[in-house]
Amino acid sequence: MLKRLIPHPLVSLMLLIVWLGLVNKVTLGNVILGGFLGLVVPAITAPYWPNRPKVGRPLVAAEYVLIVLWDIIVANVQVALIILFKPNKAIQSKWVTVPLELTSPEAITVLAGTITLTPGTVTAALSADGGALLVHCLHAEDEVAVRDEIKSRYEGRLKEIFQ
Amino acid sequence: MALWLEIIVSVFLVIGGVFGIVGSFGLVKLRDSMQRLHAPTKATTLGVGGVLIASMIYFGAIKGTLSFHELLITLFLFLTAPITANFIAKSFMARNMKPTDLPDTTRPYGWSVYDDPPGDTEMQEDARLED
Amino acid sequence: MIEYALLFAMGCFGIGLLFNLWRIARGPNPADRILSLDTMVINVIALLVLYGIFRETQIYYEAAMLVAMVGFVSTVAYSRFILRGDIIE
Fold first, then answer.
1. How far is A122 from chain B (nearest CA, A)?
2. CA-to-CA distance for B10 and B12, rounded, in angstroms?
């Protein structure tokens, strides 16, 4: 019954928070309205999203977010230096294939988004059966190292979070 | 208005501006389309991020009106930037690259830009029915 | 001091817009043009927020958020059009 009523509790919570942020004032009426939206929107869209993704280990998830934020800052500076000071001829761009061990679509989406957000690497495509990601590196001397870093740094943690 | 708060806000503004201009400059400087794709993800994340943090501190600490809108804009940009980058990469690959230019998938199926997913018989049947 | 930092940041994003315009005019293939338009949207968001700080009002956040949403949808629509020749199948 509860599962029918609230198919995605995290989405409901997220909608409530976003609603409160949008109206920019926390009053009782706004909380009720946001809660109402948080109940109705997931219920209406439930047919498009039948499986409930499991998020275990919230601590690992928080650690993951912090690591990604830190990596974004560090990699941003690196890429800015490459763009500003490296002559075009010295930039070695490479395609890297990252074979995936993750299976749930949500986890793969998060991994692809993380790879794109950390500058220097962009996710270009997924293989047709969802088993490998195609990543483009702006400047990489060793493609194996890039692949291993993605796998150990991000994929391992995502595997813990989503499975 | 405390001086150190002003300094922090100014530093964030300058950081944001520098990364914004570097991101756009990368668009002009780099030669290859796929390389150019790297530039805007940078402008979004740190450029706009820096500006939004600066404005959050400015209105929160100096003006005394706390606002969540900046956080929402940052969140929205962080969520949408990978999707747009992926779409642009796919549209570029579909137009300008052949499957032989890319590395192997190490899987029995090719990249999704060129190959249909396996087990998609429903859609094929639908297409046949429409014919 | 904040005024000077603001002017500096506005100048940076303004010059960034000019760079984007150059890439839209030059861009050898459509993907480059879409990318430039997307970057332009991002620069405009930053400029709007900066202008909001400049005028000391928060009314421009709604505008910035709307620009962000419209920009995202239009970028996806453009790419999809190039990818499939159709936006809504």
1. 7
2. 5
Q: What is the dihedral of CA B47, B52, B54, B59, to 10 degrees?
A: 170
Are A85 and A133 in a shared domain?
yes
- Report the distance separating Cα C53 and Cα C50, nearest Å: 5
Tens digit of each residue's pLDDT (9 = 90 or more) over B2-47: 788 888 888 889 988 988 888 888 888 888 878 888 887 776 778 8
- How far apart, in whole angstroms, are the C-alpha atoms of residue B44 and residue B23? 8
Task: Determine, yes or no, domain membership for A90.
Answer: yes
Residue of B nearest to C44 (CA): B48
For B90, phi then psi, to 5°, come to -65, -40
Phi, psi of A119 (to 5 degrees): -65, 155
B33 part of contact set with chain A, CB < 8 Å:
no
* Nearest in space to C27 (alpha carbons), one of A26, B130, B92, B90: B92
Looking at the structure, do residues A84 and A27 belong to the same domain, yes or no? Answer: no
Question: What pLDDT tens digit does each residue of chain C (89 aa) get?
Answer: 788 888 988 998 899 899 889 988 887 888 888 888 888 988 998 899 889 888 888 788 888 888 989 999 998 888 888 887 766 66
Q: Which domain holds residue A25?
A: 2-48
Residue B124 is assigned to a structural domain of this protein = no
Q: What residues of chain B, 100 to 129, have a C-beta less than 8 Å from chain A? A: 102-113, 115-118
ipTM: 0.84
In chain B, what is the straight-line distance between the N-terminal and C-terminal CA atoms, in Å?
71
Of how many residues is chain B composed? 131
The CATH fold of domain C2-84: Helix Hairpins (1.10.287)
Note the pLDDT tens digit of each residue in A64-91: 889 888 888 888 888 888 888 878 777 7
Tell if the CB–CB gap between C9 and B20 is shorter than 8 Å: yes
- Residue numbers in B near C13 (CB within 8 A): 17, 20-21, 47
Q: What is the pTM of this model?
A: 0.84
Number of domains chain B contains: 1
CB-CB under 8 Å, A138 with B35 = yes
Instruction: Please indicate, yes or no, if residue A112 is contained in any of the structural domains.
Output: yes
Residue A127 within any structural domain of the chain: yes
Q: Does B28 touch chain A (CB under 8 A)?
A: no
Cβ of B38 and A122 within 8 Å? yes
User: How much is the pLDDT for C86?
Assistant: 67
